[in-house]
Amino acid sequence: MGKAKYTIGIDFGTESGRAVLVDVATGEEVATAVHRYVDGVIDETLPGSDVPLPPDWALQNPEDYLAVVEVTIPAVLRQAGVSPEDVIGVGTDFTACTMLPTKADGTPLCALPEYRSNPHAWVKLWKHHAAQPEADAINRIARERGEPWLQRYGGKISSEWFFPKVWQILDEAPEIYEAADRLIEAADWIVWQLTGNEVRNWCTAGYKAIWHKRTGFPDRSYFRALDPRLEDVIDRKMSRQIWPLGAKAGGLTPQWAERTGLKPGTAVCVGNVDAHVSVPAATVVTPGRMVMIMGTSICHMVLGTEERIVEGMCGVVEDGIIPGFQGFEAGQSGVGDIFAWFVEHAVPPVYHEEAAARDVGLHELLEEKASRLRPGEHGLLALDWWNGNRSVLVDADLTGMLLGATLATRAEDIYRALIEATAFGTRVIIEAFTSSGVAVDEIVACGGLPERNRLLMQIYADVTGREFRVARSTQAGALGSAMHAAVAAGPEAGGYSSIVEAAAHMAHLTDKVYRPIPENQRVYDRLYAEYVRLYNYFGRGENNVMKVLKRIKAEARGEA
Amino acid sequence: MGKAKYTIGIDFGTESGRAVLVDVATGEEVATAVHRYVDGVIDETLPGSDVPLPPDWALQNPEDYLAVVEVTIPAVLRQAGVSPEDVIGVGTDFTACTMLPTKADGTPLCALPEYRSNPHAWVKLWKHHAAQPEADAINRIARERGEPWLQRYGGKISSEWFFPKVWQILDEAPEIYEAADRLIEAADWIVWQLTGNEVRNWCTAGYKAIWHKRTGFPDRSYFRALDPRLEDVIDRKMSRQIWPLGAKAGGLTPQWAERTGLKPGTAVCVGNVDAHVSVPAATVVTPGRMVMIMGTSICHMVLGTEERIVEGMCGVVEDGIIPGFQGFEAGQSGVGDIFAWFVEHAVPPVYHEEAAARDVGLHELLEEKASRLRPGEHGLLALDWWNGNRSVLVDADLTGMLLGATLATRAEDIYRALIEATAFGTRVIIEAFTSSGVAVDEIVACGGLPERNRLLMQIYADVTGREFRVARSTQAGALGSAMHAAVAAGPEAGGYSSIVEAAAHMAHLTDKVYRPIPENQRVYDRLYAEYVRLYNYFGRGENNVMKVLKRIKAEARGEA
To answer: Is the distance from CB of A112 to CB of A62 less than 8 angstroms?
Structure first.
């Protein structure tokens, strides 16, 4: 065996970027560095301006992404004491769809003085929600035309995705649309910066830009139906050449070699997405094992051998996660953020005081108290729609419900009921997959929640009737990118020939297994039946009270 | 005009008794005294014992009632500086059904050494809930036999009422049942003590003991069907002679004259019930004006000219409130206690800190914040069943629900939604009355809530579309008893010939009128339609999830 080789994975998140330097042979995470974006999420005013942005806007400054590379790569090299010669590749993953308009050479329009004061010149972050009118029209026209691709996205294109954002630029700032030689995912833009090559990846193209490996993008006639000026958007501002995941986009440019301390020509992998790159990092490269990235929300990723239409999924993309497989994605729009809401807004002082006195977190205290309850003992049932419902109902206007409260109900009862409700929501998603022929035999969890809340993991196992394993890495995105970097470097450089091979060496699970407890399962099966009934009653149009309340609320606020 | 005359009203509550000395000509409340029961609510162990009571038991010590008389009457006389000659009558009202077994001379069995250690020898307080099995059998057998009186009680006899409690004594302590020469409401027992006369009143007999002015008690054959030993319960241990409200039960005995400082022979009125006696104290002596006694729960009292069957009412009793009228009673089992639950168990520290810093109560702070919301603005809807539902569903197994929550929901939003839910619950009751031909044109509120929460009163006016007025007295029970005392004394002694006449002089409203605001009404009409739909869906058997959850909860606790 020769000397140890390393790759660097960089995970571009919402607030910061994180680099991890990984031993290619073992997956050991040798060094980690995080850099917060200076401008963060831009949702009030543009940097250097005091003109307020409209509601629902969320922008970023691409300079922040470059700063992450420039700061974190030298930092991990320094920490690890690793020689640049032994770093064989760099991989990146990004939030998505996070996109920007650039000139033909990749210069972001927002970096040019003449466009800098126009908000549409900046990066539209994934959670920019101001393109809803465009998304609505995109969906309506697709339904009217019977576009075949719509069902691959659970019947609905999200306002967060690529074409709603593009169309919003055209609608509201045609001069920016005109000035943009390229419209590109930040995932691909960062790779372009590092390599000088504009290469676009299968993952964001497939999940966010309605691209399909065999049939490509939607027809020109469809884009023309949206707006005649959009007819040529693919050919004029994007590309029909999409690159497979794990491919080498190019070598690191001399300029970036200098700025990072790496060698020029170091292999740089094509772009990828945080959730998707976590799948092999959680050891999953074959069908039947679902990866759940559990944090503020949950992404559910599972592989299949055939394209299946699954109700309310976010998307199915061939080769979109692991080459050779259909990659299915579904999601719950509110999980950890519901628990955070509860802890911040609905827990009385006596709990805060006890937590402070015992020097434990409030989540921890509530978990401890909730752990003492037997399933069903609190008498509560909730619908976990505080942030709407993504899968399987694809309806942002649904809202949260709690039922069963009495004068004896206490905070830990509600906390547990909220955890259970999100577990029931996951079970609905799993059943949507399995009933469509996509197997989900076992779960691997990663993200922030699994390590923090064991009660939650046990409840998920009990509710779904599946064993839950936990990925060893607590930074699965960055590790997954480092694994893809090893594939881009290739075996001749000391890397791997495929992500499957990389996963076999670099991805690991913890020893902990959460197994369903039959006695709990029996109770949860009964509660789940009640959950499903309410889910259907409130979620499928039989009683639209949640929408009526939202309408009345909007009217009361003068918004409707 | 002669010298001013006075009466004393004594209101026997759950934790204490309250006497008020009132100017008969004006209703002016000249002096008030409160005495807390030493043994209070006995729900853990009997006084002087450490044998624990079973769950759901609630007893009292009749000595505490006597102490109230002995302490408070001298206190109000002293405070007011009024001569006993000028006190023309004493009236009392009680919680009900609060009952006890006694010997033939009125001695409570619990006062006798041989019975003192038997819990069944003590007073069973209104909220003693351990006779549910007996209540269930009473209802089942009544339904099977098609007993005509059942519909006068909303189709269900409560476990709190007289015969379930009597039957529980027989079931569990036949020796106490046998030793009891008399079984009697505390409302009548206290009058017996003061006068030496065992007289029973129309109100408790009618509302709690299934008595009807024209048809009397249920048939002997019905009691035999319950238990052969109960066949003669009325004739052996009760009385078929029931006295009208406002009648003079007798004169104060020399012993009690001595103990109180009043003159022997001072008129003592027959017993009455706290909620019912509040009606004339709230100026209401004619149909069309509903009195709402608003506190922990709400009692809705309204007069009618004909007996009507109203869904889910607590009862209709001819002459049961005001002679000459049908007295209708309905109720909401949870109102102020839901707000109290919320404030204690679901409001985060920042509100507590703000309230403390500004030296206001938490209810006050939440009311202030909730007042800034327009109707419908919070987007929430609740079912106010934290303590079950009394009218109109008569179902203790229903539970609370909150719907419409988002990550932006705050405590004042929920607080307001809970107030609104209780107002919607009142509207359902009002509509049950009006649709059965019992007019409810206007409301008079009394009790603890109206003076404390103006937002609540305005919401009730907006939701019900009725003007709300507020009784001037904050101790309507005691004032009502003093008014009845003036009737018992009669015009020849300086009192009145009827409660109608007494009310014309002694009962008053404040100037405050809460009028429905048409703009708010329009929004609340829409929200009410949604409330009613959920009320029926969850409350009338279409979806029994609340009962399923209660069953699972009982199983989880090993109670089922």
So the answer is: no
